[in-house]
Specification:
With 324 residues, the chain is mainly β. 12% of the residues lie in helices and 33% in strands. The chain is built from 3 helices and 22 strands. Strands 3, 4, 6, 7, 9, 10, 12, 13, 15, 17, 19 and 20 form a 12-stranded parallel β-sheet that branches. A 10-stranded parallel β-sheet has the order 1-2-5-8-11-14-16-18-21-22. The protein is globular, with a radius of gyration of 23 Å.
Length: 324
Amino acid sequence: MNNLSIPRIFIMYFILFSFLLILSSCVSTDGAASITKTIVVDQKGHGNFKSIQAAINSIPDGNKKWIQIHVNQGIYREKVNIPMKKSFIVLQGEGVSKTSIEWNDRGDTMNCATFRVFANDFVARDIAFVNSFKQPSGGPYQVAEAALVGGDRNSFYRCSFIGYQDTLCDYLGRHFFSDCWIEGAVDYIFGSAQSMYKSCVLNSIGSGWLTANSKSNKSSPTGFVFKFCTIRASGKTYLGRPWNEWSTVVFYKTYMPANIVPEGWAAWGSSDQSKTTYVEEGCTGPGSSKSRRVSWLKKLSGEQLSHFTDNRFIGPDDWLSQQP
């Protein structure tokens, strides 16, 4: 009896150890998720689909496993929409100079964007989003979005957003933008999201306003934080104007060129600018002087500032490290 029980116990432990070994090999050591499937998009037919939207449509509603859509180089002239039911997608290009999604539309804030995502848990890397609508010389300018980002836990790495007015509708949800190029002139980063922009280039190609944040009430955790960014400007540029009176925008250790207007911020869409939270801390460059800034520019305590500049601003659940 005892002689037989020893090998059985040994076999049970061996099976359990093997199972744990296999399980650990499927999970990244840093806690990041793994890609379970890759779909290839290629215009010349050397992939699974010729269009990006067709690849997205092939993913089942309610998907719970990370699927990568690898988009081979080329200009994809299509409007792309990722609906709420198609989560856990990684959209991977081959570099912003090689892979782009381009369309020409304007006028309707919710529908004119070249690219729209409403799904949670989405990642885009190394791809350009372009709205090629040609604004009339001298205006009046029209809404012509390159992208509308409306899901929660959405992140973008080394992406470009190209437009003129309302280039990036940072609509709703928690978002992270890293090493991205965002180009426009009039309110070209706008919306009500809770977003951090890290090491991004903000390229103003005409006189106007860089941001138009629309935080709607005091208790909302939303706002835009620009950390270690670089601003470029070819015309007189304001850092932003308040779409709603609780508008919240923080620039931290960001380079500001001489084209930034001395006042920094413009009053618009708000009856009481004192309720806004506009912050500039540790910024550099000829446009960073605060000697002539608006009287309602805020000064935060160290603890208040760290709330915005730490990744916890976009959520204490550390969702960024859990993406593939």
